[in-house]
Design a protein that fits this description.
By secondary structure, the protein is an alpha+beta fold. Helices cover 29% and strands 19% of the residues. It contains four helices and twelve strands; from the N terminus they run ααβββαβββββββββα. The strands form two sheets. Strands 1, 2, 3, 4, 9, 10, 11 and 12 form an eight-stranded antiparallel beta sheet that branches. The chain has a four-stranded antiparallel beta sheet with strand order 7-6-5-8, with no helix packed on it. It starts with 22 loop residues before the first helix and ends with a helix.
C-alpha cells in the first residue's frame, strides 16, 4: 500500500454530492414525494370550512341585528331621493343607545297598522323564495314578509306640523324650504292641506318626498295615532344608498331642518312661562325694599 493511502477500514465512508442517494432513505424523509402533506392540508381545510361558514353567518346575523341592515325600496314614494329598487343601508345601532329619529332623517319603520295593503301576498314557493328567506335572515337581502315603510321625518314629539292648501309645510310655525328633495313638480302638501297637528311625545310625523304619490302621515289621520308613527316602530335611519353602484351616496339631513327657529315652540313656551316669574320676583324685591325704607324712617 502506498504511503498516504487510506483503506475502507480506516473510518466511515463519506458520501460526495455526486453519489446517488438510497431511495429508502429519501422515502423516510419525504414520504410520497410530499403528496401526503397536501392531502392532509386539503382534508383539514374541508373540515374547517363548515366552521368558517358558520362564523361568517353568525357575524352577518349580529351585524344585521345590531349594526346595519339592507332594505329595498318597494315604491316611488321617495322619488327622486330614492328610486324603486334601490338598496339602502339602515343604521340600527344608535337606536340601541336611546337615540330617536330627528327632523329631516329618512327612516325605515314597521307598518303602524293599516298603512299597507295586507291583501298583497308574495310568492313564498320555490328555491328563489327559500334563498331570499335565508339571505334576509342574515341581512344580505330585504325580507319579502316584513311590512316596512320608508319616509322622511318632518316633525317629532312636541312639534306642531301643518300645511295650508298648496302652501309650504310648517313646523312650529316656520315654513320648510323643501325644494332640494321633494319630487320636481310636486307641491309640498297637495291641494288638500292638513293640520295643524300636534305630534305626541314618542311619535313622529313622516312624509314621502314624492308628495303626490306617497300614502304617508297625511292619509292615515283616521287611524290610531292620527297619522303619527311610534318611535318604537322605527327600525333605524337610512344612511347610504348602496345599490346600484351608480347611485351610491349618503342621505344627509337637508339644511332647512337645521335652521334656527324650527324648534322655537318649546323655547317660546319656556320664555312665556319665565317672564311672569321674573316680573313676580321684581315686584317681590321692590316690596321688600319699600318695607325696609318705611321701617328705617319710623
Amino acid at each position: 500500500m502506498a504511503v498516504g493511502a487510506r483503506s475502507d477500514a480506516d473510518g466511515p465512508e463519506k458520501r460526495t454530492g455526486d453519489e446517488p442517494v438510497d431511495r429508502g432513505e429519501e422515502q423516510a424523509t419525504e414520504p410520497d414525494g410530499g403528496e401526503g402533506v397536501t392531502d392532509k392540508k386539503q382534508r383539514s381545510f374541508l373540515k374547517e370550512l363548515p366552521l368558517l361558514i358558520g362564523i361568517a353567518l353568525l357575524l352577518a346575523l349580529l351585524i344585521k341585528t345590531f349594526l346595519v341592515q339592507a332594505f329595498s325600496i318597494p315604491s316611488d314614494s321617495m322619488q327622486n331621493t330614492l328610486q324603486r329598487g334601490d338598496r339602502v343601508l339602515v343604521d340600527k345601532l344608535t337606536p340601541w343607545f336611546g337615540a330617536e329619529p330627528e327632523r329631516g332623517e329618512v327612516v325605515v319603520f314597521h307598518d303602524p297598522g293599516g298603512w299597507l295593503d295586507e291583501s298583497v301576498q308574495t310568492d313564498s314557493n320555490g328555491i328563489g323564495a327559500a334563498f331570499q328567506e335565508v339571505m334576509s335572515f342574515i341581512g344580505l337581502m330585504p325580507s319579502a314578509e316584513e311590512q316596512d315603510l320608508i319616509k322622511r321625518v318632518i316633525a317629532v314629539g312636541g312639534d306642531t306640523v301643518a300645511c295650508e292648501k298648496n302652501g309650504p309645510v310648517t313646523v312650529n310655525g316656520k315654513a320648510l324650504d323643501e325644494k332640494s328633495y321633494i319630487y320636481p313638480g310636486n307641491t309640498p302638501c297637495g291641494s288638500e292641506g292638513f293640520g295643524p297637528v300636534k305630534v305626541p311625545e314618542g311619535r313622529i310625523w313622516v312624509m314621502g318626498d314624492h308628495r303626490h304619490n306617497s300614502l304617508d302621515s297625511r292619509f292615515h289621520q283616521e287611524l290610531p295615532g292620527h297619522g303619527t308613527v311610534s318611535v318604537d316602530d322605527v327600525v333605524g335611519r337610512a344612511i347610504v344608498k348602496a345599490w346600484p353602484i351608480d347611485r351610491w351616496g349618503t342621505l344627509p339631513v337637508p339644511d332647512t331642518f337645521a335652521e334656527q327657529g324650527l324648534a322655537a315652540a318649546p323655547a317660546a313656551m319656556g320664555l312665556a312661562g319665565a317672564v311672569p316669574l321674573v316680573l313676580w320676583r321684581r315686584r317681590l324685591k321692590a316690596g321688600t325694599a319699600r318695607a325696609r325704607d318705611e321701617s328705617a324712617t319710623r
